[in-house]
TrEMBL record, chains A, B, C, D:
SMART domains: TGc. Pfam families: Transglut_core. It comes from Sphingopyxis bauzanensis. This is Transglutaminase. It comes from the Bacteria. Residues 158-218 form the Transglutaminase-like domain.
Length: 259, 259, 259, 259
């Protein structure tokens, strides 16, 4: 599967501000970057650093006036698509060290509060089957409502309100998985089939010795997503962080399957 | 400076539970482990994995009945003790990639909320001088009250309540630093001069190209601490995490300077 | 049904502090105070004011040293025991003015967040039947765990954690009712059958033109409770509020059925 | 002082919904309603009930389609304008019963958390002088930023963020007052001098045996406001509450001094 992806972001900046941009499909074994062009215009500086878990780059920029970002890439997905529902939980003492942080509570995922719910509702199955049941439970009980959450909304709120956007679905999914002692992180992606098309966020769980994508919204398939960034939750995967005042003018993402 | 350290932890476990122990002084360049003995008794398994930022090890255990941990070490501190107040802030685009996560909000450190306070109160100084002023502000305005916080208490609560224990002081310090776009993490340590003696937690900020310890409680000095673990906040540096029911029977830490 | 009730509270106060005591069974039509004795020792002052909704009295005291409260009463319950499950919801425009505040969100009952859950889970029934289904749902899904909550715990936490003590059960019950636009308040009571015996808290909902007691813990029956105080949530019905430092030494409640 | 007030609210409703409207200047001794016209169009029903503390009316409506509310009144303010800064705190045991609820924590005002801050910062003055210092502190340290808060924002957030709109200023003012054991409530008002002109919210504190208006934003004067409603916090004084989906089309308030 090859995905042709474009992203256009236009912002008004005023005085020069430091910005962190994180919008490129990551160059990692599971997805081949066939070609890529990123144009951010002239900047005071432009620097790349490896992002969380060495997946993708964070790009630092500094400029004022107007920022017009144009990104275009073709990515060939070569992901292992084993059905995670068939996989076993990795015993805790065999977890790779770098996955352990994804058992911990994070900004939007106070996972420990969900321990009793997870035991009560999903206590009869384990590993990938448990993750599958959690995912289905979320999709069944939640309603996707654009604009129903904001930068303050955490998994606790979403779980009670039973609605949200992709990041909220992912936060609840991540929290439930961690409450079952299964490492879980959030992933920002470009994905086919997202309506309305935009940056998308899904969960990823560590089962059977590898990470597996799980989309509780049901909109995207693991084989049809290009990963941008991973993190503990939305606090880590913002596609644009400004250290100063900015105003969004326009944002447009397209994702298409190509031959 | 050499520190002789002991820790004794006794827990009642009942049925076998998975446990994560994180109490050893880390073997890192800035502190030489002269000798160390860790005794956890017989376990179903015992596994070590590298912890956050490759500083120290997390140890996985599984056992039931009673857990009696005895740890003894001598650590020679060889830390660079440059006064952080004299150091410059690293421009964001020159931050090493692995420090960037420490600008983000975390479970107990919703740093963005403090941006206006930090600008108003500390806007006239930069870098290490700013960190110094923040530290002094916390020490002046806060009261150390044992038992005044719990596992739910975050920097927002502590900032308003103006009291807490070491982890709360560290959470506020970390939040203020991040709100000034200076990477900041929490560090669990064994430290001289902590009253009552116990595991201690302090902040660490990235200034002048390196990490520097900052104790807002004023109890411990950078040259008299042995680092155990680092993390985004207390969610990452728990010295004992149990995946099941346990009861603490006894906990005792000693730290002494030795020749 | 007559209840013989005693309460003994012993506190160490140090310097004189202002105290608000709220422990007497209320003299209201639905319960006849057959006899009552309240002894609080010598105080700098002792003043009574009518409490929330004119149900019961708040008593202001000021004293130092030690406070020993002894209260003893016999109350004859004459409450209308119509099964609330058979009653209709009062149309909003016919709600008495003083009940409307009990539709609003309060400190521990952020009811609006529960609107979708309530529609999804209980949308097929109305009025008293809906309240009954909510109550049963809570009792089925929650576990009563002494010490599992504290003064910070709200209905959002309890709903996710699925455990708590009587006040937590009441907060969730109140929140669900308000989310269905049915006025709901909390009531502190002396009740038969509470294990361990202590002050108890239940919900009360406005159905069919009157208030009806609902105990989601299932421990107490409407005909076997003596009301002490009502309020929006636990913030209003504290049995002892101290405006200064105090230490609890002893607290004992007994409730018995008498001929 | 006479105020000529108009309010126009236009909403799109779709299917018929229950609505609670609370926008009329209250008919209370301190302000004479010289004349008033309220036009809400045709409704399925229209019912008035006395609001919190018998100040003003809540109006229940039910209608679908479009709601166009037009309100016009002239109010003569006859308020006692004693400077609250000169007044004494009422000893707690002399507080009228109905003021005691305003010492308690509420949805947006978790006042107990502010006790240490209030002691540290304002511990050297009492009564009205203390309230005055609190008010000045808020005005000095906060910035009024339209759109900086939402329905989730409480006094804890605002205190840390040091910004907000009128309701946030009022919530912090109310919280600080209650933390000093001075009854405090929120009041929605029409006020001269509010920029941009809109419904306004201020605090009211109980000093010297009466309620006194306090505007921490500094925009409105006690003698130039017409009270609409009082409550524990913003949860009680919403000018329009819809029990169903609605969309705001237009809202306009004017307040002018007239001869």
């Amino acid at each position: 599967m090859k995905l042709a992806i474009t992203a256009a972001l236009d912002y008004r900046l005023g005085d020069p501000v430091d910005l962190m941009l994180h919008i490129e499909a990551a160059a990692i074994p599971e997805q081949l970057i066939v070609n890529a062009v990123l144009d951010v215009g002239n900047c005071e500086y432009f620097a790349r650093v490896a992002a969380q878990d060495m997946i993708g780059d964070r790009i630092w920029l500094r400029r004022g006036g107007e920022l017009n970002v144009r990104y275009r890439t073709t990515v060939e997905i070569q992901r292992d698509l084993t059905d995670y529902r068939t996989l076993d939980k990795v015993p805790m003492h065999r977890l790779p060290g770098e996955t352990v942080q994804y058992l911990n509570e994070s900004r939007y995922c106070p996972a420990n509060k969900f321990i009793h719910f997870v035991q009560d509702e999903f206590g009869d199955v384990e590993g990938g089957a448990k993750i599958g049941r959690m995912r289905d439970w979320i999709e069944t009980h939640f309603t996707y409502v654009s604009g129903s959450s904001d930068a303050e909304t955490g998994a606790l709120d979403s779980f009670v309100e039973r609605q949200g956007v992709c990041r909220d679905y992912a936060h609840v999914m991540v929290s439930l998985a961690r409450a079952a002692a299964i490492p879980a992180r959030i992933v920002s992606v470009y994905a086919l089939g997202v309506e309305p098309q935009d940056f998308h966020a899904v969960a990823e769980v560590f089962l059977g010795g590898a990470w597996h994508l799980v989309d509780a919204t049901g909109m995207a398939k693991a084989g049809e997503m290009a990963k941008i960034a991973v993190g503990r939750d939305a606090a880590d995967i913002s596609f644009l962080t400004a250290y100063g005042e900015i105003e969004m003018l326009n944002q447009r993402v397209t994702v298409e399957a190509v031959a």
